[in-house]
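Quick one: co-fold with zinc ion.
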Amino acid sequence: MSWSNLHSHCFYCDGKFEPERYIRRAIDMKVFSYGFSSHAPVPFECGWSMRSQDTLNYVNEISILKQKYADQIQVYTGMEVDYIPGVISVQHPSIRNLDLDYTIGSIHFIDQDRHGNPWEIDGKHSTFLHGLNTIFKNDIMQVVKRYFQLTRAMVREACPDIIGHLDKIKIQNRENKFYHEFSRWYQYEIMHTLEEIKASGAILEVNTRGIYKKKTVHTYPGRWILDQVRKMKIPITLNSDAHHPEEIINCFEKAAYMLNEIGFKYVRVLVNGKWTDVELDPTGLKIPEYA
Ligand SMILES: [Zn+2]
Ligand SMILES: [Zn+2]
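Sure, here it is.
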């Protein structure tokens, strides 16, 4: 048995080390398919995204490593691209021209403050509270609705291969500080968003980072959402969002156990460059013999 991880960061964005170090560790951890998904550049000051002048080096360096380790692991070049209307998306020429193997689309910014600075929702809680107050006048429901509206707009207008960490905004709602996920309005947002994802054919990511970083108890998205995903037969993939080589398959066994329990038997991953449904159990993925 083996694993796949297509959501990872290295020193081209906010990851810790050079790409090769992740590949070596992935081989040790019996990963057969590994993808880099550095944060795509954004045209404003941002502490965790790649610089636009580095994108070609990023693609070239990974392409050299693909060849170097071809007999031990399949390596893929992707990017985690924000969706900011009129600013950046997977459809932007700067992304399309790179000829990536795949893209992850994620929402990290949902609005701007009055000085035009984009407001990040998955950073510090104090940053969140500041924007909630100054941009949204403490109307949490509007913030969450805006987050899912943007997710749906991304799916409709610039759909990535993989939808990243669907309900990550929940890290700001620890211990149901602002609302309960069983609220009708919240469930409506989720269901409406899942319907659009289903119609698009995109793959929904099950992301373990919140668990091992102790920001959430559950995966992104959480259990009740995954029950719906299963019923709707939306394809899923399992990712760690690793920033450090030791995080590459963190919490995968636990997540795979939960996914099996919900009724998921397969995850969709890249095998020989093609999206393929492979069998999943808590010990790993059953890789096709031709891989
Ligand atoms: Zn992200
Ligand atoms: Zn990420």
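If it helps, Residues 140-157 form the longest helix (18 residues).
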